Amino acid sequence: MDCLKQPVFMVGDIDENVNLSLPPSSGEEYIKRVIIEAQQCADVVVAANVDALCVKQPTRSYIEPLAGCVQAPPKLSPTLEWQQYQVSDFSEMRLYVNQLRDEIQTYKRKWEPHDIHLPDINDESTWINLCLGCNSEEKLEPTLNTLFCFNQPTVEQVLEYFVHFVETERKIEYKTGRWIYTLLVMLEQPLNPDTCSCLRSLARICSVIRANSVLYQLIDYGFRL
């Protein structure tokens, strides 16, 4: 540990009477000022007048609400336990998928891509119709065998199409939710700015749909009766 106390490089003699209110004239002088300020700091500092109640209370992380999101109605607000369960379940699913992907890429697991004819990546309506089985005999199911045939740009683009579809329809049906959830699981990090913007848009429209849900209106109507 003594080697950590040795200076990395020599800075020469230090004038402790230097005027610290003036800007340093060189990099060497700046380092000398840092040394002087460090020498003026006490080795041990004891906080005074600490409120004991603040110490005993657990700290809470603060997350700034996303702009544009509608606050959940009181009767539809998710509990903390529910949120923690969903986050844990989603994280385990992503970990499982990442492990499968790594095993396939390193040839530790045998997997052959299915013979799937995918539309042009820029054809939004065809993608939505194919995934949801609208006006077509063909239909893609959001299975791992299907999603492993998608490269990451395709996953990001199809997710953006579904977010736009939900913003237009103002509702999320079961088959739409399955696709969105699976695409979220397949996202790889780090996320690019466009994908981050897409996720924020998804959060906003989901909050609006929740606030305007028929279930909440029925519950609220029942309580008022």
UniProtKB/TrEMBL annotation:
UniProt main location, coarse: cytoplasm
Biological process according to GO: spliceosomal complex assembly; spliceosomal snRNP assembly
Compartmental location: Cytoplasm
UniProt keywords, alphabetically: Cytoplasm, mRNA processing, mRNA splicing
Keyword flag Cytoplasm: yes
GO-annotated cellular components: SMN complex; spliceosomal complex
Record has Cytoplasm as a keyword: yes
PANTHER family documented for this protein: GEM-ASSOCIATED PROTEIN 2, GEMIN2
Homology family: Belongs to the gemin-2 family.
Protein's UniProt name: Gem-associated protein 2
Organism (species): Dinoponera quadriceps (South American ant)
